[in-house]
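Trying the structure run again after the queue cleared.
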Amino acid sequence: MDKFALTVENLTKIYSSSKTKKHNKALNELSFKVKQGEVFGLLGPNGAGKTTFLSILGGTVIKTNGKVNVWGFDLDKNPRQVRASVGIVPQEVNLDAFFSPKKLLELQAGLYGISKKDRITDLILKMVALEGKANAYSRSLSGGMKRRLLIAKAMVHQPPILILDEPTAGVDVELRNNLWENVKELNKEGVTIILTTHYLIEAQEMCDRIAIINNGNLVALDTTEKLLDRIKTKKINFKVKNINLDQKLSMRDINFRIISQNSILVTYEKKSLDFSEIVNYLNKNNIKIEDIITEDGDLEDVFVQLTKH
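Done. Tokens:
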């Protein structure tokens, strides 16, 4: 039986303006569950409600209605335990330039009331591969190191849930890959990861399940694999030998587009027919196929379909 790290039931947040008398519903009866030990993606366009949701978990925004349970603690009854169960890695790099990573982690642990004998500063620095920079000024760290230090800060109280809010924004490809290797290692250690990102290929590669929200509403929640299965259209590029540009190609439910003398783009609905039927049709029309390139849709296609962004 699945154990859940986070349970959200009918979560609603309404922002009211006393001046305009208008009400803005940032979250509309949001409901989902995050399993213990999984990497869970929370995706949505700007203004979808992601930041509001994370702020409610972090205790900086008060919900209007609904229930939130984190690691067995009810947000209304046990707000301190909820915050202690969550480590949030923010988008912005907010580090004191003149503190070393070790000093910063020690200070953060003190803010959580962790006694010196119970602190695991050196272990956390090793987990995020910063042990060699433990006593260097934070200002001397590279962009990727600063991001890893933010993760380390969120881990000082050993929370079972780590929330990464756009962790690779503005980070180059190499540093991004290093960061994700780090996150995967934390997940192997049993830490539940909740990820928000605008890099959809990242979510596709990292997440076990994904929730997509739009205008405060949950519009999709499924495994990454099943979300990708929602894409109906399949694209195939046939590399061929000298086709006549004026040749007419026609099959039911198939769109043929002759790109050049050596290229034909075929699009069709995945379930409408078998791929071999297209190959047989081209062979019958004396079109010699030299190569086949398939272009399956990715998570970005699903995202656009569901959010119209």
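The mean pLDDT is 88. Worth checking whether this holds up in the mutant runs.
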